[in-house]
Amino acid sequence: MHPDGWARAPVRPLAAAERKMSDDSNILDLNGITKTFGPVTALSRVDLTVRRGEVHAILGENGAGKSTTLKIINGELDPDDGTVAVAGRATTAPERARGDIAMVHQELAVFTNMSVAENIFAGDLPRRGGRVDFDRMHARAAELLSLFGLEIETREIVSRLTPGQQQIVEILRAVRREASLLILDEPTSGLNNHEATILLSLVKRLSDENVTVLYVSHRLHEVLEIADRITVLRDGASVTTLDNDALVEDDLIRHMVGRDLAGARDARARGIGETALSVKSLTQIGEFEDVTLECRRGEIVGVFGLEGSGAADFSEALYGLKAAGSGRIEIAGRDMRGAPPAAMRAAGLSYLPANRKEAGLYMERSIVDNIAAPILDRISRMGLVDRDRIRKQAETDVGRFAIRVPGIHAEPRQLSGGNQQKVLFSACLADRPDILALNEPTRGVDVGAKAEVHDVIRSEADAGRAVVVFSSDLPELLRLADRIVVMRSRRIAGEVSGQDLQEDQIMALAAGTA
Amino acid sequence: MGSTNQTVTSTDHHAGGTAASGRGDAGRSFGGNVLPLSAIVALVAIVLFATQPNFGTASNINSILFQTSIEFLAILGFTYVMVMREIDLSVGSVFALTGTLMGALLVDDWNFWLAGGIALAVAAGIGFCQGFLVVRFGINSLMLTIGSLLLIRGCSNVIANDLGGRTYPREFRSLARTDLFDIRITIVFMAVCVLIAWGFQKRSALFRKMCFIGENMRSAQVHGIRVGRIKIAAFMASAVTAGLGGIFTASRITHADVRMGLGLEFVMVTAAIIGGASLYGGRGDLRGSALGLLLLALVLNGMIMFDIEPVFQQFVIGALLIATVTFDTLVNRRNG
């Protein structure tokens, strides 16, 4: 799956001997890290070396294994195989969790009703006698802020700061601990360009102060701007580590995307019919803006966007799970904007949610119940459920989707991710919708089940349904979609079809370099 | 304030979770509680029967059943609110307000049916408001109904004080003593409801939807279940059935009393959880709730028989409430 064509790319890859070296000049050494979750392999033999004092970036698409790697480094997870050495010494996960690695998570974790200084010193307030020494706390906070050239008042309540400033406060909290390694996980994902610029300059300052930073992102220009070295992850494996020396974004994209997966599209010979779904200038300010999209019967349209592109919000708004301020969602000529999911369903639009545990499955109810949930009214007479029909429907679906279960009364929590996903598909298709909006249809399923799910999607399109697939898995979209709409910064950045369906082109559109 | 991570894990915990292993496709715990609970109720009854000669008298048994049947009216809607992982702690106050209001209207010489209709309409309105606030603004129903518990109790007390200790008209007083087939009408009603609930819980689409909402509201939304409507309807049902219970109680005690229905909500929670409902939603059984009420009534009756101070009742109800809630949480955590 991972040919090292690109690992032997123009830039010098690290020699094996160098990678194994674990002297004190390396603050962090990951060697052959493997991690599986049930049937899913999240990481496979990942190597990573962070040198003392450098800014090291980890780059990868969604699902490439970035967060799992971070969790292992931060001691939140134990690898199944491989070693993690900190400052040359092999460590266990609890040791790392206690040790001096400071991680700033992607989601903000500030105390919104407390002051900037209190946030920076949270958990370790300066004391005199038994009381908090507020003067010293504010003085030290002001020192830290000015050290990085930041103009934030230390007594300001954090909820009144911008998201960018809040992110900076969080980073300073980690910096204050004077940890030997500072991990920043997608620190700019919630920020606008201006805020992101400030944050990047903060990272540069940190680097000047000799703080070692591990910077995780999928934003190419940021990484190129601040990193000394860059490790690229793809499909749970470390592809290569590059010195940031005369690199351009295209180099990175090629590594992130790999080459083997492109061109695996099937020739398609289905008839494409009339327009089934037409979205016109759909807008919710701050989430997605001016989104226009059309999907015909028999057509599979892919929607691709990196995190923060607005694709996820748009997918939920399409099904009425989120509000959309203006624009139209036309199904069979009727504007359905503002209609609740129940009405969308009645109009023929069905939706597959992205996170089946959070919304989609009832983990502790039988498969029969799960499949019956969306069609209870249809299979009831005078409010009473026809239990034979449910059972038959469940038996048919278990056969049709080849769901491997102990029995139709088994519960989803007993099944593998792939089989859970097939139960979710059964529920999604139970009322024979005309239009399918599928959100991350193969998240967290293994390779075999993925292919089966793809077959189901294709056969639904062949049967004349209009299918919109939202996925952050670009190879998947390339295999499935007739055309791909790319979103970036809340808007549609472009549409790609036919000969242009190439990974690097789409990735360039999504990352904003085209 | 905990870290974001912690919050996330704790919500994950609630993703569902019941312990019973019934395999019926209406709900895993379906009917799972009824048999063992019946056995416990029977056991307590037998012990009391064997040790206390006063227990077995027709009048005592009748009074226990009558008491239970009136409380049963109030737990009807309450149980189904709990199935959806909400709670309605205002039942005791709505119970008092509805009964007192109907009595007050009758004292003012209103038509009997009109007075009843108005009192129940007020209850329905209260239920609608509570349901609407929960659905529209996502207010935590526990806190909301603690607030309305106080608010409605205040309204009810104003009316009760206004009436002083006046006795209600004869027509109203005789309502609770209405018999059908020589049995109090509320007892007959309870028996019929239990039978209907059996079918409702086994066969109806609506009850399944309620279970789905309680187990995972977001899934239910995705599946096109009209979560908001069903929740509002359940809060209305809870208030109206509590109101019905209040009307019968007011009739039974024959005059306005500010203590009417005080602490009833805690009896309801305890009985419903004993009967198979859960604070974590997704299940509940009206038959079990009825048995839970009966069990509590037997225990309290037994305490009187054994000459235990009546002031000790609150202690016992409190202890039982803590015990059932602890059990409920442990059962859910094991599966979480």
List keywords for this structure.
heterodimer; A: 514 residues; alpha/beta; Rossmann fold; 6-stranded mixed sheet; 17 helices; 24 strands; 32% helix; 26% strand; globular; disordered N terminus; B: 336 residues; mainly alpha; ABC transporter involved in vitamin B12 uptake, BtuC; 14 helices; 2 strands; 1% strand
SSE inventory with pairings:
The complex is a heterodimer of chains A (514) and B (336).
Chain A: H1 16-20, E1 26-37, E2 40-51, E3 55-59, H2 66-73, E4 81-86, E5 89-90, H3 93-98, E6 101-104, H4 116-120, E7 127-128, E8 131-132, H5 134-147, H6 163-176, E9 181-185, H7 193-208, E10 212-217, H8 220-226, E11 229-234, E12 237-243, H9 249-257, E13 275-284, E14 288-296, E15 300-305, H10 311-318, E16 326-331, E17 334-335, H11 341-347, E18 349-352, H12 367-372, E19 380-381, E20 384-385, H13 387-400, H14 417-429, E21 435-439, H15 447-462, E22 466-470, H16 474-480, E23 483-488, E24 491-497, H17 503-511
Parallel strand pairs in A: 3-10, 3-11, 6-9, 9-10, 15-22, 15-23, 18-21, 21-22
Antiparallel strand pairs in A: 1-2, 1-4, 4-5, 7-8, 11-12, 13-14, 13-16, 16-17, 19-20, 23-24
Chain B: H1 4-13, H2 34-51, H3 58-83, H4 91-107, H5 112-137, H6 141-163, H7 170-173, E1 179-180, E2 183-184, H8 185-203, H9 205-215, H10 217-222, H11 227-253, H12 264-274, H13 286-305, H14 312-335
Antiparallel strand pairs in B: 1-2
Helix pairs in contact in B: 2-13, 3-8, 3-11, 3-13, 4-5, 4-6, 4-11, 5-11, 8-9, 12-13, 12-14
